[in-house]
Every structure is written in structure tokens, then in C-alpha cells.
Amino acid sequence: MTNSLERIFDSVLKALEAEVLPRLDDEFARGQLHGAIELLGNLKTRVEWSTARLHAEAAARLELASEVERLLGDARSLAPARPEAALDQPRVSSAELEAIRERLDHWLGEVLRFVAAHRGDLGGRAAEVEAAIVAILRAELKAEVKLTPPPRFGEISRGK
To answer: Could you tell me the pLDDT band of residue 2, with boundaries at 50, 70 and 90?
Structure first.
């Protein structure tokens, strides 16, 4: 469940311009911040998520979607329809992969709402569907944590 790069860049740029820049009194530091803002603005139009990673995430969701449909069994016809998603096309862009992942995430949310509303009819299958979805989310979170550098809380709190 990753934020879009555009949203991340926009949030960082807005924070730097609206919150940090007005609080800098040092002329040199202000100049450096303007340089960083310009650099981030240029990177925003040139950077995209790794297609290999997005492809793996989308493929895992498609595999999960098949498993969820199998677990739903006959109730599948009453459940939200799974969105179309084709990963076998050559040269699928990161934007297309991100959109596929987002559509599948939305569908999984709809499936969870369906399962909650029909828990009595689904019996033990409800818990199995929920467990399958939670398992993939946990695995992704663990992978995300490995990619995230350690926080700099000390430097942040001291302002150094």
C-alpha cells in the first residue's frame, strides 16, 4: 500500500516551501534549501517506482485474487467482481503497474467488506479470506521495512 511518487514529492516540496523555508534565517541555508527544492522538483518528473518491484506486487495480488475467489467458492458470484489486470503484456510501465495494483487493492477492500457483511453465510471461509489478505499485507510490510533506512529521530528532535 504505497503512496504514489507524485503525492510523496508534492508533500515534501510543500512542506519545505511552506513550513521550513519561512523559518530559515540563515541566507546560506535558505539558498541550499532553494537548491534542494529545485532538485526535488526536477526529480519528480523523472523518477518512477521500480517496475520489477511493482510487477512482483501486482503479480502477488493477482495470485491472492485467485486464492480469494477459490476460497469464496459459490459465494464468488455474489462478491464484488475482480478487476481486469493483465501483466503478461510486454513493457508494462510503472504507472500501469501501479494502477493495476491500486485496482486490485480496492477490490480486496471490497471483498473484505463483502466478507464482513456475509460472515454468517460464509462460515469458516470468511476467516480464511481475511487471513490470506492479511498474510500478503504482512509480507509486503516486512519487505518495505527492510528497504526503509533507520529513522533519524535524534537528529530530528535536536534539530541538528
So the answer is: low
